[in-house]
Amino acid sequence: MKKIILIGLLLFIPGTLSALMLNTLDEPHFGRGLSDNWVGDIITHKNAVWLATGRGVSFSYFDESGWNRYDTSNGLVSQDISAMYSSGNVIWLALNHYEADYLYAFADGMAYSSDEGLTWDTMMVPNTYGYQCTLWDIVGIDSLMFCASWAGGLIASFDGGSNWRNIYATLLDSVYPTQYSNLHFAAAIDSLHGDSLLLWTGTAAGIKRFIFAPAREKLTSHRIYDIAAADSFIYIAGDSGITRIKFFEDEGSLTNRVSRTSFIDDGLPGAAVASVHVFGGRVFAGTLDSAGGVGTGLAVSDNDGEDFLTGFTGLDDVIGENKYPAEFSSARSFLFMAAREAGLYMSADTGETWQKIYTDPADTTAANGRNTVNSVAADSATLWVGTDSGVVRIEFDDLGEVVSRENHTFVDSDSSGGQVYRIAVQTILDSLGEVDSKVVWTLNHPLDPVEGINSVHYAVDDGSGWGTPQNLSGFPTGSPQYDIGFDNAVIFIVGRDRFTQSPNRAFWYSMDGNNIKDSTTQTINFDNQDFRSLLIWNDTIYIGADSGYGVSYPGSAVLRWHLIKPNNDPTRFDKVTYYTYPSDNISGNFVNVLAVQPLADGKSRVWASTHPTDSGYNAICYGTLDGLEWHIPIADVNCWNFDFNGPEVFAATSQGLLYSADTGVTWQEIMISGDLVTGDNTIAYTIDPAAEVLAARVIGDTLWVGTAEGAARIALDQFGTNNWEIYRVYDSSSVVYAFPVPYSYADSRQTQIKFHYNVPSAGNVTVEVYDFAMNLVKRVTDNEYKTAGIKENEDVWNGVNEDGHYVATGIYYFKITLPSGEERWGKLAIIP
């Protein structure tokens, strides 16, 4: 079926309906020629070449001559085929039929067969059948399949065709199916980039590029516990591994990023990562067996988080219930670790060996709240430790030995002194970059939620006196705060459904999660979530939430967020990018063909046939893999198909077969001339130069093309010569058949049986149907005058006998009496 470049009003989209399965069993017709001269698509399947023709499919095995044919007479419910696809063992056909007075085709679902057509099943997936729901492309790889449906949108299966679902680039596409952006006409897959899959789709509103990334290359954690930074990467620690992010700025935004996630398979001893820190060229991670679970120890990476090592000296106790690395801090050459009930640890050799520091040597029992270390902040020779019984201030010397300890509690937290959940040191610089002052901050949670309160404290005099901003304007009270960060004098605090900032500790500005929205997609926000982590790095703010993380855009007076949410669903794309006319240098937004050309340098090029939707012009375009650069090598041409052989490009167009030997730099029109293959002998033949070329496919060392006047093939090493082999309909004057067979008068799509036969010379013809006992059932045509030629739609039977009653199911025979008196017989079947 030719892809007609028209845009019309969507008249009908089927709703939900269980897939209707129609199974037929029949042998293919076999003959010397094609079933029809119109050849719109070509694929290879199971050592055979398959052609979609104007009447069903024709296929020929590579090691034999002749063509096997399927149409409505032997297995297909309809025979106008708009797309074909081979998934290896299974061949898929997109079926359609036309009805009088309708501009567009009626789609009839997908037929598929795993036995070269001996058995066909027809799958009526919603949005693949009905008026204007034609499937123009079926593409796939492994168990993935994607269908570009006109009014049905983009449809996908991730399990080899057992289950199907629509993929919508935006919520608007799903709400308004008549959006031009959801009218799909083309699809192409680029699978040459590791485990990532790029799906290109052509719509009536331009080109879309979907990226489906593997779990290793995207954020998989929902709850983000900690965020750390190094010179090259940001590390996101969460309930499903640790993700390394590298951002690339694009016109001031931070939307372009490369991710790499590490899991247990990469050496992490637990599925969840509670803390992450970069020190001495190493990445340190504190792990749990699950979100909120049991501690599984410390993991360290020497290659930026690619893989991790465990088993470091001195950490035997840092495993178990409420024992895990909860926070790290470093000063000079020392690394400190808060390990909850396991206590406080220090390493002087970048994490190879560890020694425990007792926050209260006089009482080392578990009952002493100072031995539960939740947080640590190192500032030169001072170590600030947040415990279950307030703050412990520790001074240490150049050798890491403890010089003094000093305890601080907060009487307004609760009766036991309060749990210091987080402690941090703010260093404020003057205009010359010198240290002006330091402020120690604590975020406190009550050990007893009934008696205690959540609070925030700060000290400007090394802990001698503690103040609180709770009663100041704009500061949130009552709910817990989880992390704190600074940008010189500016303070940022995150907590339960709250992001709060202050320029000077006196005035506070707070917003809830509903107002932390993605600046490009306002419907994405962090409403009613806990913000558990915060990082200020290079004037950029990172916050970790219960469903991903957010990044502020630098350089803006008002915070603008880009929100990154996890994707553990392999059926959901990770990113979609649009390319449109005229901004991306494509000639028009109506895109009817897409194809991906692998290049010698390991890169790819995407080719498109583009047409005007509301404005623009017809052209062939090609773009780079990222879509940032598009070119228009040929204008004023309609293209129906591309294929490639290294740098060579074959384009099936309205101007014939166009060829480029140099990846589209120069072009020439190819004449298809050679021998017409009939089976008995060969005849010199040339495809009409005015005939459109509809398909081009490189199969092995041979190029196949489909045209409106037949199919042709030529060896690639003979390309450019007149050595084409051309295939067309073979004279089938002796062939008679009825279709569709089997016939069901209960099937609303099968309104009548039609008879096919040839009348060698004009005269009167009679068509009769007999039952198995050879009793006359119905005289369909009674001695009617017929002109010479093939008759295919003139004689029809609706399954009733001479008395007007539907006949019983079973096998029937039909006889066609020609003007010469010659009788030709055929067989048909009636099913319920």
Q: Can you tell me about this structure?
A:
With 832 residues, this protein is an all-beta fold. The protein has 1 helix and 67 strands. The relative contact order is 0.08. The model is unreliable at 1-25 and 250-255 (pLDDT under 50).
Largest sheet: 6 strands, antiparallel
Q: What's the number of extended β-strand segments? A: 67
Report the mean per-residue pLDDT as an integer.
Answer: 87
Unreliable runs: 1-25, 250-255
Summary, kept brief:
The chain is an all-beta fold. Helix content is 1%, strand content 50%.
Topology, pairings included?
Elements: E1 21-25, E2 29-31, E3 39-44, E4 48-53, E5 56-61, E6 67-70, E7 80-86, E8 91-97, E9 106-113, E10 119-123, E11 129-131, E12 135-141, E13 144-149, E14 153-157, E15 165-167, H1 171-175, E16 184-193, E17 196-203, E18 206-212, E19 224-229, E20 234-238, E21 241-250, E22 253-262, E23 272-279, E24 282-288, E25 295-301, E26 327-331, E27 334-338, E28 344-347, E29 355-357, E30 373-379, E31 382-387, E32 390-396, E33 402-408, E34 419-429, E35 435-445, E36 455-459, E37 481-487, E38 490-495, E39 498-502, E40 509-511, E41 533-537, E42 540-545, E43 548-552, E44 561-564, E45 575-579, E46 588-598, E47 604-616, E48 619-624, E49 630-635, E50 639-645, E51 648-653, E52 656-660, E53 668-670, E54 673-677, E55 682-686, E56 693-699, E57 702-707, E58 710-715, E59 724-727, E60 737-739, E61 753-759, E62 763-770, E63 776-786, E64 789-791, E65 796-797, E66 810-817, E67 823-830
Parallel strand pairs: 54-59
Antiparallel strand pairs: 1-10, 2-6, 3-4, 4-5, 5-6, 7-8, 8-9, 9-10, 9-11, 12-13, 13-14, 14-15, 16-17, 17-18, 18-45, 19-20, 20-21, 21-22, 23-24, 24-25, 26-27, 27-28, 28-29, 30-31, 31-32, 32-33, 34-35, 35-36, 37-38, 38-39, 39-40, 41-42, 42-43, 43-44, 46-47, 47-48, 48-49, 50-51, 51-52, 52-53, ...
